[in-house]
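input
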Amino acid sequence: MTLAGKIALVAGATRGAGRGIAVELGAAGATVYVTGRSTRQRQSEYERPETIEDTADLVSHAGGTGIAVPTDHLVSDQVRALVDRIRAEQGRLDILVNDIWGGEKLFEWNKSVWEHGLENGLRLLRLGIDTHLITAHFALPLMIENAGGLMVEVTDGTADYNADHYRLSPFYDLVKTAVTRMAWAHAKDLEKYGATAVSLTPGWLRSEMMLEHYGVAEENWRDATEEVPHFVISETPRFVGRAVAALAADPERARWNGQSLSSGDLAKVYGFTDLDGSRPDAWRYIAEVTEAGKPADATGYR
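output
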């Protein structure tokens, strides 16, 4: 699998899934523009150590070319300038990944709309929906200049799962279902240009923030299963990254146009694995083990 010569933009690549996707696109040989608000000079409100420069370095170390561009995707002028730069430097855009989020400290678990902080909730909508639309508005005209482009909208949960599961609060629920619908709508517009749009969800992601929350590192992540047994089905951000790389390298990717996909399901089709050689199938596990009230056991699910 090679993406040599391909130009990608991973919007929201500071950490988590965005970083994993950027690195795997780089490992396949792509030139990857990585964006976010956390840089070596300035932190976002997350106040975390990860930066887009670090992500770009990881992309280059993996075998690609990483280019960090500080961007607030709520600011139209910054997104326009970003796409203008890609056009000037590369003349094309083959892969657009919308992984912009930034809402981890804003959503309030299991609170109704009247209980949830209104300011936090509305900010959540702006960060999770407006950013994706603004980025698509400016980036897709460049992508469709050449047939075969791929757009990936990253969300949390498959369309089937989210259709009958209430996701934490009306604000969070709306964001995560809206992104899936957004990908479906983009697919309708893009297919006439020979481009493909999908929504994609990882499973239970072992992001930097999740590992820190459980007081473990990637090297000893299984220690967290003593406190949270079902964490046994978790996956690294590189797993969903390999899903995006496999889609981008598939000459028949148009068969997925408009669909809601997961890292676990795509691993069955394309044969890629997580870093440990396993294929975690988190959404099937959640339905058949977690929600069925069975003891934590990933046998047959990874």
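quick obs: The mean pLDDT is 95.
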